[in-house]
Fold:
Amino acid sequence: MTYDEDLEKLEIELLLNGVYRQYGFDFRDYSYSFLCRRIANRMQAENLKSISGLQEKVLHEPGFINRFISDFSINVTEMFRDPEFFLAFRERVVPVLREYPFIRIWHAGCSTGEEVYSMAILLHEEGLYQKTRIYATDLQENILEKAKKAVFALEKMKVYTKNYHAAGGTQAFSEYYMVSNDKKVALAPYLSENIVFAPHNLVTDQSINEFHVVICRNVLIYFNNFLQERVLNLFHDSLHYGGFLGLGAKEDIKFTAWNKFYDRFAPDEKIFRKIL
Ligand SMILES: C[S@@+](CC[C@H](N)C(=O)[O-])C[C@H]1O[C@@H](n2cnc3c(N)ncnc32)[C@H](O)[C@@H]1O
Structure:
């Protein structure tokens, strides 16, 4: 490692320690390459020459911390994102859930809610939504406010409709929303009825309940191995015996200590069933 890399590492460490101690947000175990990229972007946007300059702003400029937090929260999402995942859920997990008197699902890192409403639609079509309670959580409170509104851009509906059908949906997707004048769509209010949106930080907060399903897709990719293991521990603690864990396409439990605690339930998708 060169002197400059050493210094950069030290400055990042100091910056993230400061953020944690002052504001309680802990990014210290996010993937190092991700941290470097996001910090470099913010420095460029603020025209700063050093990471210490960024630290100065974070600690002393009122409100700057919110910009800093959103730098580490990539909110990209879609309805029925990776439709094969939802298709496998519909075909393989739903028959098991059908046997339960009630169903509790946790969507961790739910972003603006598209994934959660997709699940609500799927469960509604399978006749299970009435007996389901979905807990949808994210680190960022402003993102959750957006999610609660259930209002999305009309231009996205073409892709979402395609995803919905690829995920096994057989209705007209337009039945689930109303178009407004400002090129927005509002989802049907009954889809929100059994969803609770709440802030939860996977790094610092405890388990919130025991669930039949935990879905956390495209979040672990931003964490280093140590933090992934810790969050997988939290999910294991949060699942009933026989419960399901759903991860993103690029995420896996294969090379973690948690592999032996799960059966690979849907071989081509990242859906695992707790067996220990
Ligand atoms: C790329 S989005 C994934 C959204 C959705 N799960 C999907 O796959 O479409 C990642 C989300 O994880 C959230 N996130 C990042 N770190 C988190 C943490 N420590 N605790 C809770 N959520 C976190 C971000 O705020 C962001 O909304």
Observations:
- The chain has a mean pLDDT of 97.
- The two ends are 42 Å apart (CA to CA).
- The domain at 83-274 is CATH 3.40.50.150 (Rossmann fold).
- Residues 48 and 238 are 42 Å apart (CA to CA).
